[in-house]
Amino acid sequence: MMPAHLLHCQLAVWMLLLMVSGFSESGKLLVVPMDGSHWLSMRLVVEKLSQRGHEVVVLMPQVSLQSGVSDNYTVKSYPVSYTKEDLNGRLQNYVSSHLTGQPFPFNVLSIYNASLSTFPVFVDQCKNLFSHRELMQYLKQSDFDALLTDPVSLCGALVANYLSLPSVFFMRGLPCNFHYKANQCPDPLSYVPRIFTMNSDYMTFSQRLKNVLVDSIEFFYCNGFYAQGINFASKILKRDVTMLDLLNPSSIWLMRYDFVFEYPRPVMPNMVFIGGINCDERKALPKEFEAMVNASGEHGFVVFSLGSMVSEIPMKNAKEIAEAFGTIPQTVFWRYTGETPPNLAKNTKLVKWLPQNDLLAHPKARAFITHGGSHGIYEGICNAVPMVLMPLFGDQMDNAKRIESRGAGVTLNIIEMTSKDLSDALNAVINEKSYKENINRLSALHLDRPIHPLDLAVHWVEFVMRHKGAPHLRPAAHDLNWIQYHSLDVIAFLLAVVLVTMFISLKCCLFCYRKCFYKKERVTKSSKSKTQ
Amino acid sequence: MMPAHLLHCQLAVWMLLLMVSGFSESGKLLVVPMDGSHWLSMRLVVEKLSQRGHEVVVLMPQVSLQSGVSDNYTVKSYPVSYTKEDLNGRLQNYVSSHLTGQPFPFNVLSIYNASLSTFPVFVDQCKNLFSHRELMQYLKQSDFDALLTDPVSLCGALVANYLSLPSVFFMRGLPCNFHYKANQCPDPLSYVPRIFTMNSDYMTFSQRLKNVLVDSIEFFYCNGFYAQGINFASKILKRDVTMLDLLNPSSIWLMRYDFVFEYPRPVMPNMVFIGGINCDERKALPKEFEAMVNASGEHGFVVFSLGSMVSEIPMKNAKEIAEAFGTIPQTVFWRYTGETPPNLAKNTKLVKWLPQNDLLAHPKARAFITHGGSHGIYEGICNAVPMVLMPLFGDQMDNAKRIESRGAGVTLNIIEMTSKDLSDALNAVINEKSYKENINRLSALHLDRPIHPLDLAVHWVEFVMRHKGAPHLRPAAHDLNWIQYHSLDVIAFLLAVVLVTMFISLKCCLFCYRKCFYKKERVTKSSKSKTQ
């Protein structure tokens, strides 16, 4: 028998030949990205699809947080009705509304209100796209095989419906668990925590109660949240549509998480888990960072970034943080563009940008202070760096809870925390063995996969392009109404049968009883009358 | 930028180097297979794991349907309390009980009774294993990393529990959907058909009613089915266990299907789908078959096999089949060891064995007549050959229904069919375009996967060996009782709150009303008395 390594050689050579000879059949893909950090990891997929020879067209508003320029794919941009300042202002307003610090449920309401004032910018963007006649004409005439989108702004889903294109969704999640609802995925309230509840999958009675209550109000607030977008979609599609109508035709849902991070729960066959897709191979550090890293000595360093959307915070909070950093022996790289706090210690380096993944991948990285965005968290997991989490908005609170519940990090409230809280948290994750052990375990589990998430995502986009969708993965549940889905009609029928049977049996018994009783009575009466 | 094909080259060379240098860390695996055809595909995984340098020990009863000899892995055999004739007799009795032909629900009862008389042989086998002191001592002392088993006989699951080993289940399914129940996987009755109902995922009201009724009796018949095994397990583990207690610790469930074949439905993150794992690359045909295939001319040939367990059928049925074959222009390869039917036509070649996959992979294969075992069906799908299905026992009726519902085959009742039924069915699948188109579509979807099912299975067995299980994929639902899982306690609490609130509000209203009314009454009375 052929030895294992020879078999492997043979396999690899075969793959090599296949790849050199051009394995993939080229297709035509339309991409409707979501602005902001969401685009960071989707761009990786788009780049790779372009490299594999597909014609990729990306729709970008002319005013955007991300650069649309690329040599690899075509960018079609369209003018929008707002300025860069408008956009930045709205987003900063959204972010700062989270920095006021309120208890539950006021935090939820605050987030809701902030979202209500920010979200219309994406609806406007979509209106601008659809009112660009020339571009829409081009889209109609181009024979795309499929559409790739992050559905959180709904615009991509609307374009897919409008052009009748099979679609692939690429996302971390949607408000109100719409990504499960639209996909007919069971979502048990008893162990699947709802967003903003900060519950884990193990809940006490009162936490489960909170989960049920939050779930029951989701219907109302999410309808408000998406009302404008849905109205616009109904107008464009010339029929009344709901959120679920727009989302449920999607062929494949590429979910930017895995179950090292997310709590295990029921899923559907058309959900593909690509958590960690953004973790890159470690590259050499730029010289200035290399020098600082080398100078950090045996204590190593800490990386601190609040993500691409938040580069400064109120001075009061910045001072608390700077004070805490002064108490630890590690060097701290702090991505910060605001005014330098007066109490900044020598070990703290303020930088306008930092090579986050390459720093985290360095063996001297001791801790990662993050806002808890899913990209950053996965870089922490991939590189096995314990975290201090300072969640700000969106899913960040819940992301932080997931890492904390696995013993791989400590969550702090950036508004309420003192410098002592932060230095305690840093000391804990750096010096207590359990945090490093837990993040090592999570990292080992996460990285032990049969295929890289990027290749997996590329495979499924190409799959949808090749087969014009994935109808074989679409559950029949889509064609059942709520009563049928829960078999309530069958249960009602069976109950009716049981009740009718009982009623007839009872009537029969009564009839027989009366017959006997009546006879007896008659006999008794007649015998009595005789005796009288 | 580096062109795509160069990037691929680089990747492939890297993989090559990795493989040559010995990628996998070797471990120690215990395998407890199920006898019969179930072992056919599990053996592929065991062989590959051995080739990858793991120490694999397979437990085999001395009397078995499959040969246990291998150069690659260690076989530990143990004596059993029955003879080869006993085993064959029981299995033949089981098979022939299905050839009587009865309507629903008598067919289910007949299968149930046949199973009740056949199944104890596997319990005996397990008792024999546990009474073999020397072997048990060896198992206890050997430090296995994990256990791989087909849990249908329960013995492997019992050994895993007994030795406290993390386990991987490898299977097509379990009676009564235990593979979903034990894994906390939602199983909606409205579109997930129960076994033996012959329902598809699209059901009428009466089919959904049947589904609910069958599901409600499953609890009773499955408990009867597994009663002996459970009793024995309770004795061995020295505590009362249920079927679910034995099954639910399993780390990974390797499911021998995918959603080209199975209806899409909710799944759990620890279920891995490896349908088509048994489809091999096409190999050259043996000379005698090559000659016959070449002689078949433009009409091509038909492959007919009823699986490894059924090689002969009653003469009455054999004659009907032989007659039908005489009416088609194709050559027929019929795996058959019984008496030659007197009306056998010239185009029909009776053979004791046939290279099924290699014949199906031949471009001249026109149709595949199969009993509907999952291995055979996947060979039909992989090679895109339309099927005529003659299901006999176990899951075969339901397998056949799945292929028929996708328009890739015709199902016949082998007992009731006439020769005309068979020739009509063959003419349909061979000459009507839709069957070939549908099986081509299924085949294309099935084969378009990011990784071969065999590599996927090997990866997950190694994963469990490396990490001593996969606890991160275990849902919290395992720790909830039925009431908690369905949030019935929360709902009851909320109802109670609503009722108490309503009661108090009502009482308050009544109190206020009475107060006012009483005052008025007093006022009225006093004014009346004054006027009097």
UniProtKB/TrEMBL annotation, chains A, B:
Signal peptide feature range: 1-26
Protein name (database record): UDP-glucuronosyltransferase
EC number in record: 2.4.1.17
Location of this chain's protein in the cell: Endoplasmic reticulum membrane; Membrane
Catalyzed reaction equations: glucuronate acceptor + UDP-alpha-D-glucuronate = acceptor beta-D-glucuronoside + UDP + H(+)
PROSITE patterns registered for this protein in UniProt: UDPGT (PS00375)
Domain of life: Eukaryota
